[in-house]
Amino acid sequence: MKKSFLTIIVFTMSLLLAACSDESKPTFENEQPLGEETQLNVSYGDNPKQKYDLYLPEGRSSEKTKIIILIHGGGWVDGDKEDMSEYIPILKEKHPNHAIVNINYVLAAPPSTPAFPNQFLDLGKVINKLTQESEELELLPEFGLIGASAGAHIALQYDYVYDTDDKVKMICDIVGPTDFTDPFYTENPNFQVLLNALVDESAYPENSNIAELISPALQTTENSSPTILFYGDEDPLVPLNNGETLQTKLSNDMVSNSFTVYEGGHGNWSQASNTDLQLQLSSFINEHLPILE
């Protein structure tokens, strides 16, 4: 009887050990590369404007798939992520292994809803959400920012001031305002009224020079991310010397940068100029936000 009981125990233990051993072995037969996926109007906050579109590439993985974020312009009070939609097929073609995120942010509605620092913080919320969900989404939380006009200002300011964890690796600045202490702005009779309307002064130290604090060109450091700049030589909204000031500051801080000036105004350039922009930007992404196999 004792022998039979002992035999049963030994047999049972053998089965359990075999099962554990089998479970510990990796199985690959059923693993398939992840397919391309699009998630539209993903919420990252309670405001209806706090949404983004997410384009996930085929074969993505948390070990290599980095993220490009598009940020629209509109003078901080207008615009929509749809304004950046033309970049999506271009980026998909040239960078098929990157994830793409096209964001909205809460637009300013003075005096009740200021732009700054809220819009910088909205971008941070997007980056934090994608970082927190990176394992689930199979993404590597390293980011490149592409902003146009006000969107470029938001991208630059976020990286130079708020990106303390160095999640952003590169920025593309297309006609972004960079220095609000420039006479082009300060000599406008309505400048102070506009500044007061756009800024939540309670979010900044008392008696601060707000125009300076929200000027990316005056906030660069040696830790700023590599930046590629594109400006027009006849821009009625953002003076060319805003681009020149930023380029000089980045160079003085030994930050990798590229600066191109096209004939024309606020992004309304020739087809040849736009093609050149795309080629330069693609090379910059490959250099500073590469997908490593």
TrEMBL record:
Segment forming the signal sequence: 1-18
Name assigned to this protein: Alpha/beta hydrolase
Cited Pfam families: BD-FAE
GO MF term set: hydrolase activity
InterPro entries, alphabetized: AB_hydrolase_fold, BD-FAE-like_dom, GDXG_lipolytic_enzyme
Domain of life from the UniProt record: Bacteria
BD-FAE-like domain location: 53-250
Acetylation listed as a keyword: no
Keywords: Hydrolase, Signal
